[in-house]
Amino acid sequence: MSKPSSFSLRGRKALVAIRDERDATIVRRQFERLGIDIVSWEPGATIDCRPDVALIDDEFLPLTSPAQRAALGRSPVIALLGTETPSRLKLVLDLDPASFLVKPLRSAGIYAALVLAFERSERTNELKQQIVKLDQRLRSRRVVLAAVLQVMHTHALAEPAAFALIRRTAMEQRKTIEELSAEITAKGSLPRATG
Amino acid sequence: MTKPSIPVGIICSQHGPYQAMGREILKSAMMAVDEINEQDEFDFAISAHVRDPRGIISEYHTVCDDLIRNVGVEHIIGCYTSASRKQVLPIVERTDRLLWYPARYEGFECSDNVIYVGASPNHNVLPLVRYVLDNLSREIFCVGSNYVWTWETNRVTRELVTAARGKILAERLLELGESAVTHIVDEIVRRRPPVVFNTLVGSSSYDFIRAFHAATTAAGLDIPMLSCSLCEPELKIAGPASAGCITSSAYFESIRLPENQAFVARWKARHGEHSSPSVDGQSAYVAVYLLARALQRAGTSDIGEVRRAAAGHRYNSPQGPVWIDGSNNHCVLTPRLAVSNAAGQFDIFWEAEAPVKPDPYLTQLDIAASPARDGTLPNAPHLRVVK
């Protein structure tokens, strides 16, 4: 099945907290055109859904409830700015917004803000996953180093040859170098291939 | 008794790189204005105030400002390119006027101060590309004018082609009005793509069509050309070289509807037997009628009232039934595909079974991009062969 267009927003769910009724009407109409479902929310109420995006009016900031902040932290936030004063921007930055719109709202700009928010969120999540992977690999360097020393000792090999042997064995056994290294350090020797 | 008059602005370039289409839009709009002013059905007359920005982009802002400030119009018909519409948009929004925009465009806009009378992208690009993928090729060579219409048309084409596991072989862009096309034609002859998608506008397109035809004929090649904008007056300008172009449009002169046959007869009586209406001109004609009918129903020229009166009101136009979708201010209309012939006309080979809702944000594109299983379009248009 082909990947859906990243520019089609149909079927996404948005949490919307907007104070001004005119702005809210514009958002509702534009979301309807885009096929986005709306869940209206007023700060103070609990967030009992998992939205794909949240539009938060700066009039409602700061959000004092840690539960609300945590709930919003799971989806990209689009901030609606009524003023560009640094004090207000500081409150907005606390939400870590993926995009923003300037009030009073017009239909123009809403689609772009949504696409930018989703893209930014996706790229940020990819980077976070990448960081987790790199972090794990960094931590396992100690194990790999220990395994290389073990193989150098047991096989009387120089360091490059010991590492090459571990890498080749890992590939043969369809394991990561880190996984094999953990086995080597646990067993004290290079495990034999099974099966 | 003299009918009260309502001033309406008409903005279209009668000079510059797309002057041919500007003149067609003006001719059709004025034809509708004259018809309306003679009909008892309307208890007012339209006083048309025509402005010619001469294809100079900054002039659109100037003439629009003049029409609103000095003439006091509330309704404006016109603009052809998206660049020109974007110039006018901030003024009509700021002053709360209504622009009736006749041209097909790339979508991704929805102003409360614009009525989009021409085709939305789901009306023209989608049916054309689906047809090509299902019947001709999964590899397309694109050549177009370097502006937003081409960029977005190519983007949609790429999404559809890629989803069908096909390939865009090239995207070649020329500046508006550019006539140096030889290097692109040479590349096409050298690479021999299965199809060429032409999104050039105005004189660049006519130059390209002639050079493409000459070069491919000399090389013994038969490469189909695609278009979402070519129309009958342009076939006459480009000459016999323009025959064989597969074109997507909501309007062709050859539509066999009584409303169209009467329209074409009135057109030829007014502009000459050898003259032909165009899709954008016919759309301007439709725009004037949609406006006039909404003015009549609203009983005022106030734009909020007129917009409400216009929404959902069906008009049996030359291109078939047309109405404005009140949820997005775009028109519901019937997509068609045709191939141009040596007589400067189009032979329609299919059309949607019923008028299709506009989808300016292509919210259904992911569905349209999924491979067709039964040879018909997967999106709303259910097609039938027209003989």
Task: Give an overview in words.
The complex is a heterodimer of chains A (195) and B (387). Chain A is an alpha/beta fold and 195 residues long. Chain A folds into two domains: 96 residues, Rossmann fold (3-Layer(aba) Sandwich), CATH 3.40.50.2300; 59 residues, Arc Repressor Mutant, subunit A, CATH 1.10.10.10. The mean pLDDT of chain A is 89. Chain B folds into two domains: 186 residues, Response regulator (Rossmann fold, 3-Layer(aba) Sandwich); 179 residues, Rossmann fold. Chain B has twelve helices and 16 strands. In chain B, 51% of the residues are buried. The chains are: A alpha/beta (195), B alpha/beta (387). At the A-B interface, helix 1 of A face helix 5 and helix 12 of B.
What's the gist of this structure?
The complex is a heterodimer of chains A (195) and B (387). Helix content of chain A is 52%, strand content 12%. Chain A has helices at 21-34, 66-72, 86-94, 110-155, 159-172, 177-187, and strands at residues 13-17, 37-40, 53-57, 77-81, 99-102.
Descriptive terms for the model:
A: 195 residues; alpha/beta; Rossmann fold; Arc Repressor Mutant, subunit A; 2 domains; 5-stranded parallel sheet; 12% strand; B: 387 residues
Q: CATH superfamily name of the largest domain in chain B?
A: Response regulator
Topology, number of strands of chain B: 16
Q: Biggest β-sheet of chain A: count, sense, barrel?
A: 5 strands, parallel
**H and E string of chain B:** EHEHEHEEHEHEHEHEHEHHHEEEEEHE
The helical percent of chain A reads 40-55%
Q: Which SSEs are present, and which pair or pack?
A:
The complex is a heterodimer of chains A (195) and B (387).
Chain A lengths: L12 E5 L3 H14 L2 E4 L12 E5 L8 H7 L4 E5 L4 H9 L4 E4 L7 H46 L3 H14 L4 H11 L8
Parallel strand pairs in A: 1-2, 1-3, 3-4, 4-5
Chain B lengths: L4 E7 L7 H20 L6 E7 L5 H15 L3 E4 L3 H13 L3 E4 L12 E3 L4 H15 L3 E7 L2 H16 L3 E8 L7 H10 L3 E5 L3 H16 L6 E3 L4 H7 L6 E5 L8 H14 L7 H20 L4 H8 L4 E3 L2 E6 L4 E3 L3 E5 L5 E7 L12 H5 L13 E3 L2
Parallel strand pairs in B: 1-2, 1-3, 3-4, 4-5, 6-7, 6-8, 8-9, 9-10
Antiparallel strand pairs in B: 10-14, 11-12, 12-13, 14-15, 15-16
